[in-house]
Write a structure and sequence with these properties.
The chain is α+β, with helices and mostly antiparallel strands. The chain is built from 7 helices and 12 strands. Strands 8-5-7-6-12 form a 5-stranded antiparallel beta sheet. Strands 1-4-9 form a 3-stranded antiparallel beta sheet. Helix 2 runs antiparallel to helix 4 and helix 5 crosses helix 6. The longest helix has 13 residues. It is globular.
Amino acid sequence: MLDSSERSDTWRRAFRPELRAEAIGLAFQGWSVLPGTYPTAQGWAGRDGVEADGPVPVYADWRQRVGTDAAQVATWWAGQPYSLLLATGAGVDAIEVDGDLGRRAARVLRTFGLPVPIVATPESRWFFLTRSGGRLHRDLGEHDVTLRADGEWVSLPPSPGRHGVVHWRVKPDVCNWVLPDSRIVQDALLEALDAPVDSRAAALVAAD
């Protein structure tokens, strides 16, 4: 019988074919994907000499590998269940918020009929994906909002974590792979922060 750590590793390895397929598909869309370290019972595996409480690129020269074609990307996931990382600043940026603000901003965007790809992590962090470029509004910086841009990365589904799997809240094909300008998401976040949340609205957000 497998112990809990062996079961956990087996569960994560089961995602390898799905991770590989997703990575290839994203690379065909021109997204700069990279293999990242993955969690095991002993810590994050896949890159020796680097300690981090979360996924980091497997390759030290990952910046030089940004933009690798889909055929090469396919070989990266041939053996290990590497996390699927997106190098931000190379066509795609990510605006990171907590889950509560993310839900409220997503409702604002839906109200105006503006679908945006959204990623959520098991730690209740949401990432709104936008076209690269632009700066973060200074008011947002005061509300635990972070712009992930050049020189950074974010995890994409179905990357495994210690407490679950990264998943899509809104998939890219919902908006036909057309990413919005960063300003659109930032405006929605500002509106979500300013909007009063009454008991009925709060209930709707919680049920989302």
